[in-house]
Amino acid sequence: MKRFECACFVVKHGWASYLLHFAREHDIFGGTIFYGTGTVKSSLLRALSLDRVEREVVIMAAEKKYTRRIMEMLSQKLDMKKEHHGIAFSMPVKVYIGGVHREDEDNEEEDENMYNAITLVTEKGKAEEALDAAQDAGATGGVIINARGAGRHEKSKFMFMDIEP
C-alpha cells in the first residue's frame, strides 16, 4: 500500500510559485497556496506597526518518498536552516482521494488518534456545501480557508510562461 504525506511549507511572500514549479519538475504535481501573516518579536517594529510579515503556506500531497525528497531539496535550495527563511513539515495522510490516486476503504488501519483532520480543496463557492456535508457525516467543526490551487489540470502556458490560477 502506498503511503502518502502532506508536505507543508511556510515561506516568504513570493516564494510559493517558485516552490510549486520546482516540485512539478520533481514529480509532485499540484498544490495549494494559502496566504498568511507571520509576526516578528520586536518592540520597536511593533511600535512602528511593522511587526507583521506576509507569508505563503504551500501544501502538497504525494507519495511519502516524493515528499521527503522534495522537502530535503527545497530546504537546501531555500536555505531554510537560516532564521526567517521558512519552515517545512509533513503530516501523514490517512486517505487521499483525487488527483491520480484513490485509496481503497478496505485498506484502513486501526486508528489510534483521538481526532482526524479532514482537508478538502473545492471549487470556489462550494466550501459551505462541503462543510455542511462533513458535519452531516459527523465532523464537529470546520474552517474555510480561501486559497488558490495549482493542480495538474489547472496549469497552462501563455507565451512560454506558466500561468497559475
Automatic annotation (TrEMBL):
It comes from the Bacteria. InterPro entries: N-reg_PII-like_a/b, N-reg_PII/ATP_PRibTrfase_C. This is P-II family nitrogen regulator.
